[in-house]
Amino acid sequence: MTKSFSLRRLKQRDWAIVCIVLSIVAAVLWYFYMYGPTQERITQLESDITRLDADIRRGEDARRNLPNLRLAVAELEADRRDFLSQLPRESDIAGLIDSLRANAQQSDVVIRSFSQGSAQESIQDIRPIGFTIDTQGTYGETMDYLSRLEAMRRFAKIGRLSLDIEDNTSSDPNLNASFAFTVYVFTGSDPGEQ
């Protein structure tokens, strides 16, 4: 004898068990497919809010500092124009070479050779020109000439200095010196016009 399943034969207890099982299955499905992803999304949104709040504060700080930054940029631009106006012009190289010779005469050093090299720097509106000067003079004279070269620091940079002593017995020995330096000349338009 086979009994067929009929919903009418289920007792109240059976219906309660079926309802409980279905409720548990529905709760598990709800937890994994709705509650869990919603919690992850809430956590992600909260971290996004925190990050955006920090960005907003940074933006507001930048907006408050904008007048100061504009003032600083204007001052830096004025300093740049002032600096460029103090550089010798590209057409003033002959005068620059003459001043190097005059400084050597004032320091009582003898220029044995003077050569122009190349400089590898690239700066907008500025041309670096490399020079090498070989001199002969006493220690005091050579140091005086070095100080005169260093006084040109606004537009010159000494890259190498080599000294060779001829006579080591003197308190002020003769030195053969070689100065390698770079002179920066302005090649752009008048910096005051910008």
Any overview of this molecule?
The structure is a single chain. This protein has 194 residues and is α+β, with helices and mostly antiparallel strands. The protein folds into two domains: 12-86; 90-189, Alpha-Beta Plaits, CATH 3.30.70. 53% of the residues lie in helices and 23% in strands. It contains three helices and four strands. Strands 1-2-4-3 form a four-stranded antiparallel beta sheet. α2 (93-107) packs antiparallel against α3 (139-150). The longest helix has 75 residues, at 12-86. The termini are far apart.
Helix/strand class: alpha+beta
Second-tier CATH architecture of the largest domain: 2-Layer Sandwich
**Helices and strands, in N-to-C order?**
HHEEHEE
Query: Quick one: CATH superfamily of the largest domain?
Result: Ribosomal protein S6/Translation elongation factor EF1B
What's the Cα radius of gyration?
42 Å
Instruction: Report mean pLDDT, rounded to a whole number.
Output: 83
Number of domains: 2
Helix content, binned percent: 40-55%
Count, helices: 3
CATH fold category name of the largest domain: Alpha-Beta Plaits
Biggest sheet, strands in spatial order?
1-2-4-3
For the secondary structure, the number of strands is 4
**Unreliable stretches:** none
What best-fitting shape do the alpha-carbon axes yield?
Answer: rod-shaped
